[in-house]
Every structure is written in C-alpha cells, then in structure tokens.
Specification:
By secondary structure, this protein is mainly beta. The protein is built from no helices and eleven strands. It is 0% helix and 59% strand. Strand 7 and strand 8 form a beta hairpin. Belongs to the nucleoside phosphorylase PpnP family.
C-alpha cells in the first residue's frame, strides 16, 4: 500500500535526535495510530513502549534488537518487529530511510 486514505495527520512533526529522525502521526478511523517518517544517515537507539512493526518503505538499514548480538539488514518492502518495553539500534548508512511504524 503506497498511501493511506481517510486518516487524520498530526501537523506538528515528531523530531528526534537533533532532526536525524522526523515523523508524523497518522490516526485511522478505528483509532489505531502509525507514524510515517524518515531517518537520515546515522546510528540511533530507540526505546519502545508498545510493540512495533517497522515497515521499510524506501532506503535500507541495519537493526540490532535489544539482547541480540547480530545486526540484520532490511530494505524496501521488508519489515522487522520490536517487542514492547524494549529497544533497538538502527543504522542508516547512505540514503535516507523511509518507514511506517505500526504500533501495537
């Protein structure tokens, strides 16, 4: 799916890590929320409250989940899951990484 229809978008951006990650919250009619964003080349650590599925829209990244030793690579069309109350490191090396974060 390349677009979301019939949604509400929060106009104020979520800006993290001095602008290296910028996203907007999208709310659906059923109350579910997602964020749509971009991560610029960097290595960042994110903490989760709810479980998340990170869908790669464009670009590529490497990810290391909390408690794991190996980095895994993801490209457009792939996704990875992060448990609730956890964290993950993400490395974006070249092109900006475009994503949709599915919560819950």
């Amino acid at each position: 799916m390349s677009r979301f229809d019939n949604v509400a978008v929060t106009k104020q951006a979520n800006v993290y890590f001095d602008g290296k990650c910028v996203s907007h919250t999208v709310e659906f009619a059923d109350g579910t929320k997602k964020s749509v964003g971009v991560i610029l080349p960097s290595t960042l650590t994110f903490n989760t409250g709810a479980p998340e599925v990170m869908e790669t829209v464009a670009g590529a990244c490497r990810v290391k989940l909390a408690g794991e030793n190996e980095w895994k690579s993801y490209a457009a069309g792939q996704s990875f899951e992060v448990p609730a109350n956890s964290s993950f490191e993400i490395e974006v090396a070249a092109e900006p990484y475009h994503y949709v974060c599915h919560f819950g």
